[in-house]
Design goal:
The protein is mostly helical and 182 residues long. It is 77% helix and 0% strand. It contains nine helices and no strands. The protein is elongated, with a radius of gyration of 24 Å. The mean pLDDT is 89.
């Protein structure tokens, strides 16, 4: 007896294939094979039922593959769908910093520090970007704010070392300049 196709069976099989692509991509992520994960997440995007999940995961894969510009494009698109998503905003600031677009990162962190005043991690990230851009006066100001508002934050000790090392180096440099001019 010839088999009669079951209505919807082909679509279900196709959807399952795309779900398997996503599972394969997840496995590649676990194995730190990010370029392969990107490939399989891209295949899985063809299933509209898992599109946004795959799209987010594709962005993460790009981050781990150090393809920051591609990741940022994805996160910006996701942010347009969820404009108040602080985690996406933090990720975009991080990506700008990793791309060397420090001013853009600083602008986002400034905004987020005002918006999320109880989030010490945002303030710590902001301080780190300021330090990376050698804006030590601004970093010291924000560091003082961190110490005052979040005195138990685990990052204080490390940031204090970085900021004080820079201060000591600047003082030594100034002293050497004065000595060499005499």
């Amino acid at each position: 007896m010839p088999s009669v196709p079951i209505p919807g069976e082909t679509e279900t099989k196709t959807n399952n294939i795309y779900i398997e692509y996503m599972n394969i991509a997840d496995s590649y992520m676990d194995l730190n094979k990010y370029d392969k994960a990107v490939e399989f997440y891209t295949y899985a995007l063809k299933n509209k039922n898992i599109f946004w999940t795959c799209y987010y995961k594709l962005g993460r894969a790009y981050v781990f593959a150090k393809k920051y510009k591609e990741a940022r494009k994805i996160y910006n698109r996701l942010l347009k769908r969820d404009v108040n998503n602080t985690d996406l905003q933090i990720s975009i600031a991080y990506l700008y910093a990793m791309e060397g677009k420090i001013e853009s990162a600083i602008n986002i962190y400034e905004y987020l520090c005002g918006k999320e005043q109880n989030n010490a991690d945002i303030l710590v990230n902001y301080i780190n970007v300021l330090i990376a851009d050698e804006r030590m006066d601004d970093a010291k100001t924000k560091f003082a704010e961190l110490q005052e508002r979040f005195p138990d934050n685990a990052n204080i000790e490390n940031l204090n070392k970085i900021i004080n090392t820079d201060t000591e180096e600047n003082e030594e440099s100034k002293k050497e300049d004065v000595d060499s001019n005499n």
